[in-house]
Amino acid sequence: MRTRVFLLISIAVAAAVFFAARLVNNDYVFFAGYTVLQFIVLATAWNILGGYTGYVNFGSAAFFALGAYSTVFLHKFYPMPIPMLIAIGGIVSGIVGLGTGYLTLRLRGAFFAIATLALAVVLQTLVVNWDYVGGSRGAYIIRPNEIALIGPYVQYLFLLMLALAVIALAIARGIERSQLGYGFATIRDDELAAEASGVPTLRLKLIATTISGALMGMAGAPFPYYIGYLQPSSAFGLEYAVNSIAMPMIGGTTSWVGPLIGAILLGLLQQLATVTISSAVNLLIVGLMLVAFVIVAPNGIVGLVQEFLRRAGVHTRSIAIIVIAAYLFLGGIGGIIWSLKLTLGSGLVVFILAALCIAAAYGLLVLETWGLWLGIFLFAISIPIALAELLMGGVSTMVMLQIAIGIVVAWFLLRADVKLLYRQQKVAAS
Amino acid sequence: MGLSFDLLINALIAGILLGGFYAAVTLGVSISFGILDIVNIAHPAFIILGSYIAYIVNTRLGIDPIVISIVMLPVFYLLGAGVYQVYYESFERRGQESLRGLSFFFGLLFVTEVMLILVFGVDYRYVEAWYIGPSWRLGVMDFPLRMLVPCLAALAMFAALQLYLSYTFIGRAISAVAQDQLALRLMGASPTRIKRIAFGISIATTAVAGALLIIIQPVEPSVGREYIGRVFAICVLGGLGSLPGTVIGAMLLGILESFTATFYGPSWAPAVAFGVLLLTLAFRPAGLLGR
Questions:
Q1: How many domains are contained in chain A?
Q2: Region A261-271 average pLDDT
């Protein structure tokens, strides 16, 4: 996939997410969604330095808070639109990242990690003693209730964070496939060998630190508007440092997908745990998951999936296909029964779809190529159907589940090795 | 003028006493980070754990915190040896210590802190002992026993460790493991075993450091975070792997912080360690007594 295509697709996904959230029409969705998106940006930013070059940054909270506090400062100094503030927050954090990196990255990697850990404490000390930005008492930011074109202000913030997430993911993916990314990987794998082969390691590390720091600052810049009352202890909260490490580590650090998966998974889990249990317990869960994953699954969820697919022979793939076929078959039977209750017109459509499902299940099981294509087609159209259901007021969690299953199965069936299974069958038959 | 001279002298004394305590906190890191090259950023978490154990036994049974910490030494030694075993099996042997090993310790730090918060809450806890409160006066000089006793205990611990490392077989093997693992293996000693012992000792020092911490100030679970910057700043300032360097570095930082607190206000003190760390890394990465 070219970068431009990726950008278009991710913008489309982002737009779908935004309109889906608007359809639910509940402010809580935007508040919770904002936090998850913020974690996507933070985790992706952390991973550009941590995952790609192997240098650990424990000071994500410091960079995040720098962005937030530059907004507070400018808010008092000269009011500006938020996108401007985001850019400025990014620049400030990027410069601090560059400075910290310049002083410590020439030495052993551990020094950088320790310096970032201490950076958070020091910046917090500075902010606590700086009365202009509120000192230890904190600062109020009064946000307008509405904004033109979009409506409620939360939705505007949500949209901004969504855009930031898309930008961060596009940058991460772009780096991964560029010369810069290969340079980063050489540093991660063997810095000495890279240096000896003429890779400008210090310059590359500084670039990574600056980009990573800038993105964290950008994630922090809208935060005062989101929370309304910014205290040093909330801006420098340890949960930012922990989450931005735990999310990529749990998702997988070697590609842009890992932090995304980790952030969505842990972010949603924490939203649920905060509501249902308590915020201290949910941090404990994150910490324990981090320790467990670094010991047991060093390459995160992405690594586990890759490992499974690599090890999975024809046997496992066949089992997966049988499961999919069974799912289609049961869905088909259910659809036929349901179609009997409907009016003639819509019942007929459901009946035909259900019959096609049963046919596809049969085709998949007997390894016919048409079965494969029919299956792919059915799962692909299940996504727009689910979206249409949402428009007509379906239960949103069920619809999301349906979409997720549709995407996963369509992706699985489109895999080259699965297609090979069907082609081999054909060759053997002829 | 007389008054400010008094202030100066007492700030200096307070700094030296504080520095002695910082030495106790840092000696363990000096062994793990300086000698073994294990970046144990969870060290402060073990210290806080030591503080809480001292607190529990002290409030229940009224035993002196320093005595408690000496009784707890073997327990912390075993804890440290266990942690090293996990670290070795999971990271060091696979060569993944830089990224995942660090994250592992970070996770440990975090989990310990949150668990303590869940069990004890965020209230400040303190201990009772005869030396908390009174102070010795020598002319204008003021020696609060609350600071003097931890300082002396720390110096005693330093002396014991230094003697152990220079005069016993295992102590010398610990120094050797940093210099040449292959040579050590040829001498018939297992580097892993030596490192396990050394890491156990490093964690054992936190039992004492924790007891000293709760003598000096009331403790709550997140106090440990303030010590991460300090501990590593001292370790780097003194020179990695040098115990005398660690004590000198600790004294220097203690004096600097005490002066900052006296003349600019205590809220600025946490920033001093970071400044020292950055300046040392920028101008003399080997530290004062570095190899």
A1: 2
A2: 86
